[in-house]
Amino acid sequence: MTDARAAARAAAGRISDAERRGTAAFLAWSEGALLEQAEALVRSGATGDLAGEVVAVKDVIADRQFPTTCGSRILEGYHSPFEATVVRRLREAGALIAGKTNCDEFAMGSSTEHSAYGPSRNPVDPTRVPGGSSGGSAAAVASGAVDMALGTETGGSVRQPAAFCGIVGIKPTYGRVSRYGLVAFGSSLDQVAPFGKDVRSAARLLAAISGRDDLDATTLDRVPLSADALAGPDAAPRSLRGSVIGVPREYFPDGLAPGVRAACETAVATLRGLGAEIRDVSLPHSRYAIPTYYIVAPAEASSNLARYDGVRYGPRLADHPADVRELYRVTRGRGFGPEVRRRILLGTYVLSAGYYDAYYRQAQRARALIRRDFADAFASGVDALFTPTTPTTAFKFGEHLADPIAMYLSDVFVCTANLAGVPALSLPIGRSEGLPVGGQLIGAMEAEATIIRIALALEAATDARAEVR
Amino acid sequence: MAWETVVGLEVHLQLLTRSKMFCGCSAAYGDPPNRNVCPVCLGLPGALPTPNAHAVRLAVRAALALGCAVHPRSVFARKNYFYPDLPKGYQISQFEEPLATGGALDIVSPERGAVRVGITRLHIEEDAGKSFHDRVPGMTAVDFNRSGVPLIEIVSEPDLRSPAEARAYLTALKQVMRYVEVSDCNMEEGSLRVDANLSVHRPGTPFGTRTEVKNMNSFSGVERALTFEQGRQIAAIEAGGTIEQRTMTFHAPTGEVRPMRSKEQSHDYRYFPEPDLPPLVLLPSWVDEIRAELPELPEDKRQRFVRTWRISSTEAAVVTASAAVADHFEAFVKAVGAEQGKDVWNWEANDVLTHSPDGESIPASLSPARMAELFALVKDGTVSRQASRKVLAEMLAHEGSPAAIAARLGVVQERDEGQLAAWVTDALAAHPAEVARYRAGETKLMGFLVGQVMKRSGGKADPKAAGAALGKALAG
Q1: I need a surface site. Which of A368, A386, B64, B128 has the fewest CB within 10 A?
Q2: Do A84 and B46 touch (CB under 8 A)?
Q3: B402 at the A interface (CB within 8 A)?
Q4: Is B142 on the interface with A (CB under 8 A)?
């Protein structure tokens, strides 16, 4: 174990520096809390896979040390009386929790511009967004403040910011990681997902939080992944001979930013150079992903966010409501920001009598087809799919705020994996005009090890800081 | 042409589990407010439900007892609505794919006799908390102890034809559910709740528009409410009006049924599959195991009692009121001999059940073995049937064998014929006028004379023997 106390002090210094530079990655953190955890760890003599590692946690994940606000006014000052299973597992693995990171309100957004507490900045270019919704966690890692952070995914909310910030993000198979204590947005899509400064860091973090949890009935009945097996010192293969990597043509549309296309072509060439067989494949139903996602996720959100009614916790934004309807109206009208209100309205609409069949049920059918596309591709002998993570590099603040659809489309390549439940990761594959480009590897259900292995090889063979030609 | 009333019932039963449906909190009734709560049943951000296997077992048992098809796969669904005592803003229930469908319950209708009532569906859900509008002036207080308590909802077909039939259905349903120990079906404590759908029409024409009646807090309240609503609907139609499909509420003090405020009705619940819970998949072998464990149901028991113990079906109904009564009756018969079925029924119905506090349980002091001893004392003439009641009353409060109690009470019958003859002679001598009238043909005076002998014996004479001795003396 590295000296946990020294690690904590150093991390506190780095966080402090990054925050002073205006990254605004954290909503709450404290040097004192870090040092206390380090003391306790040293005293207990505990060892674990993450002993002394400092980890930042997205603010939609409940812990007892810091408030859990979900980037929302409606949970301002809310302290959870219990901690999420993933936080408990981090502590058990010896990790030190640095603090809670900024995000779009209730994880709804792609830039952190929808946080009630202001946006985070992309450490690579502070005029640009870090992506979202887990932008605070991505910025915390990209700024060098921490090596690892937890984000969450509903429709690409870890892979997209990982791509924008030039780091690694892994979306696990649905059910691989417990959602207990993750404040729900779209329950059938949500997964806690790790960020790392490199593939190995993200994989180690994934291993620490994975495995069945009796408190989450949707977890897979599997033992935790092994950090050593996923990303031990010798895990990076020198050759990918025997691996088949599919390149789905639907993920390379005409509108793809030239720099992103170029970086992906370079990465595909690198994979081929490593001995992998590159195969052209098709995922024809991926084009329905955005409309499907924007029915399923808001529908579940409209129900999941019904509990924020001002009755039991959170600020009473109506001081003397005339009746309970008014209490709801004022609390929810003032407590939620515009994007959350938009999605609640959307979700309520698609579940309403007379519209359910046309929207929600139809979306479930489309989702099944999207899932089948992936199953068919992997059944045909493909080990992993390679795509760009995002259609563009990080955009500027305000660029998409007035146009929600343009904002939603930044997740067009990532939300399919959430709908299908399959694991996927993003890793940096180069830079375009100085901005990081992310490449995405998508695996079959439960095949995290496969995509991590390929990512380790690609990472080792790539200069992620090099400008693409 | 007469009106026909059509009723269907939706019954919610609280399952007899120790813990709640989706968390480990106690499901106990009557604890101080907000004692039995946790992040899950309070709907705190990030909490998730995990199903209670025992609740599922009880729900399956209920479904099998009603002859339903239990589906190998059912799906939990969210029923969305806002209410301060509903902490998540939705209730976890089942909707498109319920646990069980297509059962039946046999009832005895006061008007139509034996009727088979169809069961449309049975599904599992969680309860909401409870709002109190009268505890704190100007405010509503909420107690979440009940939040998440497991319930089943049992929906009947519209097969009932009168308010009295509705009540008979509820009585039969309660009996079955108590037999299989699924629910204690206590309406006062809210472990059984009823919503009723009622319409009226002319026989042979399509059903009329129905209204839903809520807020009934007893079986008699259901009957009263439906009688009122049936009368209201008929009167409205006969006056040339129409029935509006809406929700009504029963006001017990006046017996009236009134429309609920409009904003309390016509919810769009926006049901959709509960993403926090995978489909509920039941192994056929597990369901078969539960089926094999089912006790004999009341209707089967009644039929068997008629066959085995030679009693009428009405009599059988009395001693099958509960499984405890039926078991007691049967042990009692077996202890004294199957040929005594009818007599034992008499004892059970007229002596034992008199001392039952609720018609469903029997004091331990009247155990079948002890009752059989007392029964034998009467049969062998040691104690008169009349005196046996005194002995039984004494048995309730005191230990000891019935024979010892009878001796202590001094009710053991005198069998010395000389003694009996002396009492007879004495009685006849004391009542010459009655003797003369008897001899003149007024034979009903025998009862009086037997009474006189019994009086002289201090209850120790055997009335039968006294009658015989009197007869002989008077004939002489």
Answers
A1: A368
A2: yes
A3: no
A4: yes
Are A219 and A163 in the same domain? yes
Q: Range of A307's domain?
A: 291-358
Tens of pLDDT, residue by residue, chain B (476 residues): 699 999 999 999 999 999 999 999 999 999 999 999 999 999 999 999 999 999 999 999 999 999 999 999 999 999 999 999 999 999 999 999 999 999 999 999 999 999 999 999 999 999 999 999 888 888 889 999 999 999 999 999 999 999 999 999 999 999 999 999 999 999 989 999 999 999 999 999 999 999 999 999 999 999 999 999 999 999 999 999 999 999 999 999 999 999 987 655 567 999 999 999 999 999 999 999 999 999 999 999 999 999 999 999 999 999 999 999 999 999 999 999 989 999 999 999 999 999 999 889 999 999 999 999 999 999 988 888 888 999 999 999 999 999 999 999 888 887 777 888 888 999 999 999 999 899 888 888 898 998 998 888 877 888 888 888 888 888 86
Three-state DSSP state, A189: coil
What are the C-alpha distances in Å from B144 to residues A80, A83, B85, B88, B215? 18, 21, 7, 12, 20
Whether residues B348 and B232 share a domain: the answer is: no
Whether residue B163 contacts residue B223, with contact meaning beta carbons closer than 8 Å, is answered with: yes
The answer to whether the Cβ–Cβ distance between B270 and A348 falls below 8 Å is yes
Structure ipTM over 0.90, yes or no: yes
Active-site annotation holds for A352: no
Q: Are A180 and B46 an interchain contact pair (Cβ–Cβ within 8 Å)?
A: yes
Catalytic residue among A72, A111, A115, A157: A157
- List strands edge to edge, sheet with B256-259: B69-70, B100-109, B113-126, B150-156, B4-14, B192-201, B211-216, B247-251, B256-259
Q: pTM (2 decimals)?
A: 0.92
Pick the catalytic residue from A58, A72, A201, A432: A58
Domain count, chain A: 3
Helix intervals (H) in A72-133? 85-92
Q: Inter-chain contact B50–A214, Cβ cutoff 8 Å?
A: yes
Do B464 and B383 belong together in one domain? no
Which of B287, B305, B338 terminates a domain? The answer is B287
| A286 annotated active-site | no
A58 classed as catalytic: yes
The DSSP element (H or E) to which B379 belongs, if any, is: helix B368-379
Residue B434: give the domain boundaries.
Answer: 417-475
